[in-house]
Amino acid sequence: MKFKKFVSVFAALMAAIVCTFSLAACGGNDNLGTTEELKKDENGNVVFDGVELRFSTVVSGTDKTALQQIVNDFNDEYDGKIYIAMTPISSHTFENTVMSQIKFDNNAPDLIMSHNKSHKQFLDNNYIRPLNDIMELSGIKVNLSDYAEGIAKYSSLGQDGKMYNVPIDIQSLMVYYNKDTLAKYGEVPTNREELIAICTEYAEDTGELPISWATDYDFFYNYLCMTAFMQNGAKMYNTSNYKAEWTTEPNLQAFKDGIASVRGLIKHVPQLAQGDLSETASTNLFIQDKCLFYVTVPWGLDDLAAAYAKNHSGMTAAKVKSEVLGATSLSRWFALDQTKDYAEKVYGESHAFAMTKTCRDVNKQAAIMEFIKWFTQNGKQGAKWAAAGHISVSKIISESDEYKNNSDVKNFISKGYPGIDKFECVGITPFYDELGKRFTSLITNTINKNTADDDFNQIKTAQDNYNSAVEFAEM
């Protein structure tokens, strides 16, 4: 028995030694998980030869055409070296679909492009790999200092020293206006007081709604209302335990102010209280010149210009974009105290790239880094993606001439944000869906009331329901 035990221990020891020196034999570094050798030339550069990548993206709306074109450009440039097969998946099913594919290793993607907020879930389930080791092995590296700090700070997903994703862009709501119509009433408002003044004058003069936005649209609650809270200093959750602290000062006052700020604009947009302004109706008001400001998602710019041109004889979409449309942001629209730094904040979401656990071949992993670097540091492609409604968080792209001189970026997309560092997203939490649900219930249960008497109770109810869900998940 002692001899058998010795043989077993010796065999285990030898296996461990072999594993240390042979990645191919034993899986090696689990962060690489490779079963292949990385091909390099005499200069140490990676040689790509017919590498195929499966790429799943949450981009599945009107902007998927632009993304596919960018992927096609990459495939053309790397013909015979790297080929990327893109699969768009609806945002409503993306996480469940992709996580299931990874879990069962069933046609799983090698690379994902999805909202940064969901990547904590992927990490908690051990479905994505850190990028550090393949960057070191391949020499194909990205430096997070080249990306907007407010977004890049989430790339570690809370794991010090690790890089799990690379940020791509940000997106929130855009405010469009008719330049000639606005000129009759004044300048583009730069704060809440100016906004209310110009909206009041327009409504009294025309009898029309000054602001058109869709109350049946998810983005109204996900982006606009969250912006209202943030511009008044609200903190969504405690980053150490994910719990909501909405009834604790100064957060309580920030939440009350956020509600009051949205409620105040209802005087100028009564449909908000009734909840009966659909996306189609909201668009029609603008293209029929029956509103002053139109709040919508930025990736609908081309469709909006085409719809406006169709409704006005002698106009073309190009002419609408060059002569009719102007753009600005929601910055300072809701801040009751305009002196605070957070008064400029705009809330939205950010796309990021991440590598899946089922991508085990280092040649594929290196190809992923090559594509990520190309996508997030190529000014020409960055301009294409921004023109589709997604402003780049890459400093390399934003400082390039191709990007700065793109007409859509210069005249519209860049106008939707007061500055990249003023943008806020939900951060690192696995409970972002529950947060959205509770914020929605809080807004719908308060903004259509004439007084603030019940605001505290509604805030506490939303907070307690959210915290109960967090506690249940952690049991």
Low-confidence stretches: 1-28
Mean pLDDT: 90
Shape: globular
Query: Helix count, per DSSP?
Result: 22
Strand portion, in percent?
Answer: 5-15%
Q: How is the biggest beta sheet arranged?
A: 6 strands, mixed
Looking at the chains present, what oligomeric state does this protein adopt?
A: single chain
* Secondary-structure-derived class: alpha/beta
Q: Would you report the number of β strands?
A: 14
Structure, explained:
With 475 residues, the chain is an alpha/beta fold. It is 45% helix and 11% strand. The protein is built from 22 helices and 14 strands. The chain has helices spanning 2-21, 23-26, 64-77, 94-103, 119-124, 132-138, 149-152, 179-183, 192-206, 218-230, 251-265, 271-274, 279-287, 301-310, 317-324, 362-377, 379-387, 395-398, 401-404, 407-411, 432-444, 455-473; strands at 51-57, 82-88, 111-115, 128-129, 165-167, 169-170, 174-178, 211-212, 293-296, 325-328, 346-347, 351-356, 391-392, 423-424. Strands 1, 2, 3, 4, 5 and 12 form a 6-stranded mixed sheet that branches. The protein has a 4-stranded mixed sheet with strand order 8-9-7-10. A two-stranded antiparallel ribbon has the order 6-13. α10 (218-230) crosses α21 (432-444) and α21 runs antiparallel to α22 (455-473). The two termini are 44 Å apart. Mean pLDDT is 90; it is low at 1-28.
